[in-house]
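Notes from hallway chat w/ T.B., transcribed later so I don't forget. T.B. wanted the structure written out for a chain they're using in a teaching module, and asked if we could keep both sequence and structure tokens in one place. Agreed to drop them here.
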Amino acid sequence: MMLAEVAFADTPDTSSSTQPVAGWDYYSVQLRSAKSPAILQELLALVADQPYARIDKRGELYALRVGFWASRAEAEQAAKALLPKFRGAYARIASYRPEAIVATAAEQSSKPSAPLPATEARPQEIEKPIAAMAAPTPAQVAPAPTPEVAGAEKAMVGLAKLDLEYRRTLLAKIRDYRKQLGAGPKNAAARQGLADIAVAYAAQIEAAEALGEDGLVEALAARIKSDLADTRPRLDQMAKQGDRGAQAALGLLYRRAIAVAKDEQKACHYYDLASNQGDVAAMYQYGLCVASQDKEGSERLLLRAANEGHPGAQARLKRPEEQPLLAQAEVQPIPVASPPAPAPTVPEQAAPMTQDASPPLAQEVPPIPVQLTPPEPTQITPPVSAPTTPAPTMQTFASASSASSLVVAFRAAKDFDPQYRGALAEKSFNDSASTSSQLAYTPQLQYSQQQYDYATASRSTWTLTQPLISGDRFFSYRQAGPRALLADSTLAQRDQDLALRLLKSVTEFVRAREALRALEFQIGLLKEQAKLAQRLFDFGRGTVIDVSDAAVRHAQASASRLAALTRLRVAENQFAAIAGTPPAKESFALVEVPRRFDLETEARYAQDGQSNNPQIGVARQNERIAELEVQRARAALLPTVSAIGIQTESAGVSNHFAGVAVNFPLQGQTVVQISSARAQADRAREQRRQTEQGVQLDIERLRALVESGQQELTIRKEAIVAGELALRGNLKGQQAGVRTTVDVLNSIQTLANVRNEYANTAATLAENFLGLLLLSSYEINEALAKIQQTLFGG
């Protein structure tokens, strides 16, 4: 926490007024984020008793936050107290920006709440170090349950519960049912099971959508498209029989165009059927359908859904002026009163001059922004007028929203990536090998025709052979199951390889882009320092060394920028080679402060990996096939029994024969084949052991790296804050004559370095976490959605 204390050493004192200062950084507790403030509006009322409860707008996202604390410890204490209400609450750095606040708790409740902070600090506060802000009272730390809280505890009655373990169970059942269908395509129980799972996934999507979990919605929709698209005919049948879940599921599929063409009319029809049977999500959606034709009926349905706890319905009933639409539209920010006008800027007093001192140089002090919108620069009234240029702002960590997402990019890569398309062909080949093994006991039909010199007519022969007892064919037939599993495991492994390659191309793109932005930020400040050094030299207060040093560093940064541009173009091309198109410039923008990944125990990861990891699955099936090959080679020495039917025809005369044939194969090479098969089986067994050990070691390694990487990321973020404040202090010290140009140049370089290190750490953390999830058989789309939401937002 030493970095945090240093970082706030230059912030204003708010101990007396308990009012944050615009543009300064504090610690807040973030409770929830969404692309629309509608869902957050309902939750805002639940934290009206918390200090500075508000909805902030950050880029394209909205965040529900409380508090402006000076220390992380106070914010973490408040976050811990709020965890029973808001799972996932966490402390984060947040600057106070009045223009970004779209709603406060005071607008939600008539009871008194914390006053809205002032928009401008008093001049005398500017130079004071910050003291600890007013700590939460005991009532704020552990508030007694209120009627609003009690209602929130049952807010999801009627909607599916978002449960990762439940979705893992569904995924395992999908694999099991697919295996059953592979053995028997007309297995009605398996097809019904898949349809039931499609209904469950649709309910999960409705719940995730209601809570604003867009990344999870994308992942679940991708799962339906890839694994459950063939369930729609059975869903139609179930809906006609009055199944409420199937009706609601079809409404979702047609509304969001999941595995079917988008059809709002059909979506509303099925939502109508399901709402009549009490489905909460269907009530809400059908209420939107009829809003323009039957406003009273729409409000009645929304009220019923709201009473059952649907967050979207509750939010819309609080905003009756907004017209509901069937399609999900972006909700406009809620207007709030304009902040009070800032107080006039009070010029700082120039440092007292000695008789021999030269007058201080005029310069505008550029602030070092933490957020995208930096505070206004502090104006210094100079005794000597001089033109100034606004310092550039560094937009390294841009908006949390991105023009693309990992789930969408992965879906595009599966359609475009040549390596993966080759894997699909490999899957077809492996499936053919399994089918060939299944046909081992099918009868054989042969036809031959002979013409002898001594005969005037040719002889044609038809021979039908049906194997009855054959060790060779029996063990070939038994290989059909392992070969089918091998085909599935191999494709699953190729899916994971594609996800890893895609994420590495994304992280390289992020590294290259953030390095370029850091250089551009550095170049802008170095340019200003070069001008300042030249002016100091012209006034006789600087040295030629300062001028040369600033010029050299500016030239070095400019040259490095050319290499960074090339690196960025290469990264874009690498992404395009996998996904088909280059990423948008603002895609995959790092969030300001990533949330921590929720890590499971090492034993749990290892257990899941040993059970379902596709690498281990491939090794185990290869071992099983090799063992069957040994038995097949041994069985080649056993006699075979076949039923034979023969028909011959010559010169119009036909003869028929039927009987049983017994063959005794005696071939010397069979012994050699048995020895070779045994060697292959031993090799496959050792490869399986090596794979299992490798997966275990990789899980242990990656989990340790992810755990330490999250701690490292927090430290590097605090280092950025400290570096920004250090640069700001050096710039002020340079104006007062107590810091040199070299001090400022060094602090500029340090800040650029720590920002680069932060981006590299975040990218490496994402790669390690995805590797850990995939090794433990985490579903790919959900793993990508988890990384997207935690590091890139959305």
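Follow-up for T.B.: Confidence is low (pLDDT under 50) at residues 1-18, 108-157, 319-403. Might be a good example for the class.
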